[in-house]
Structures are given as structure tokens and as C-alpha cells.
Amino acid sequence: QVQLVESGGGLVQPGGSLRLSCAASGLTFSRYAMNWYRQIPGQGRELVAGVTTTASSTNYADSVKGRFTISRDNAKNTVSLQMNSLKSEDTAVYYCNAVHSVYRTSYWGQGTQVTVSS
After folding, report:
1. What is the pLDDT at residue 84?
2. Tag placement on the chain: N or C end, fewer CB within 10 Å?
3. Residue 78 near residue 14 (C-beta atoms within 8 A)
4. Residue 2: pLDDT above 90?
5. Of 91, 93, 95, nearest in space to 118 by CA
6. d(CA 34, CA 107)
């Protein structure tokens, strides 16, 4: 079955950095666009960043532009999110999401907590 497993979350001080990773299995990774979403309790999920199947294009939420970078490695079936200059408002559960480029089938990871606090 399809599995998306996130790692790299944790507690970091404002201004610090974290790198999230998502390891995918059970799917043809190179056929899926990959996204990172985040969710604050009581709110909906927000798209943070996305990357196309070949990494030819990326997109970011305005709130993270210039601070976060999404990347993927199709040989290793992984997608990463480098988060720099973290702010308290970045605190959330971060989810990895895979969307098939043709059929739009979507899969989610279990989420990883990121807490930005002094």
C-alpha cells in the first residue's frame, strides 16, 4: 500500500531552521506531484509548497516565500522542505501529500509537528 512517512519535525527557536523529509513507498513516485501542507488545530489545511513531477516548477504560499524551499529526489522517492527563518506562526502539523499528475489520486502522510518557540 501507499505510505508517506514524514520526519524532521520538532521544536526550534524563532529564526532557526528545520528540514522536513517525506519518504514515499508503494507508488510510482515520479508520476506524482508532491506538496507540503500544514494545519493549525481548529483550522483547515494550508498548502505551503508544491513541486511538479520533474521538479521543473515549484510554488509557495506567500507567507513562506523566500524562507522555505521544496525539493524532491525521484531516485530516492523523497521530498523535502527546508524551512529557514522560522517564525512562531509557522507552528503547525506539517503533512506530505502526493497527487497523481493525471488521475489526481491523492495520498497523505501522518503529519509531523513543528513548534517554533523560545
Report:
1. 98
2. N
3. no
4. yes
5. 91
6. 10
Grid coordinates given for 75: 531516485
Q: Which residues of 1-13 are buried (b: 16+ CB within 10 A; e: fewer)?
A: eeebebebbeebe
Q: How many residues does the chain have?
A: 118
Arithmetic mean of pLDDT, 13-25? 98
**Gap between the Cα atoms of 61 and 68, Å rounded:** 9
Q: How much of the chain exceeds pLDDT 90, in percent? A: 98
21 touches 78 (CB < 8 A): yes
**Could you read off the pLDDT of 20-39 as tens digits, one per residue?**
999 999 999 999 999 999 99
d(CA 26, CA 8): 21
